[in-house]
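Handout, page 2. Input:
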Amino acid sequence: MLKIIMNILWLFLGGLQMALGWLIAGIIMIISIVGIPWARSCFVIAKFTLWPFGKEVVNRYDINGCHDIGTGCLGVVGNIIWFVVAGLWLAIGHLFFAFANFITIIGIPFGFQHLKLAVICLAPIGKTVADDPNSLLNR
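Output:
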């Protein structure tokens, strides 16, 4: 129940705006044709940004136990290109909302969530969203 309340509050404290940012980045990537490999990551993380509490972003290698195109050398190159094109701007957005949440007492957990998402903005290729078994909010 707490997880649901936190996720609803999250929508009003920057989650909805940043999910829209991720969605717009994904649409731009699809329109550009060459950005299609990044679009999937954008949409997965946009969905995660809408409802983040109780989930976590993990490396696909940790889930599958083997490398794929996004977790190998091409994934590193893709993340560098992503950082220059869109990652930096999305990270700045998350940092803005993190700061706005940190200046209030009730917003501190949401500020930490924005910081976590800002780190993901820097290198989303090779990552996926999974249920967080260690979260205190899942109990």
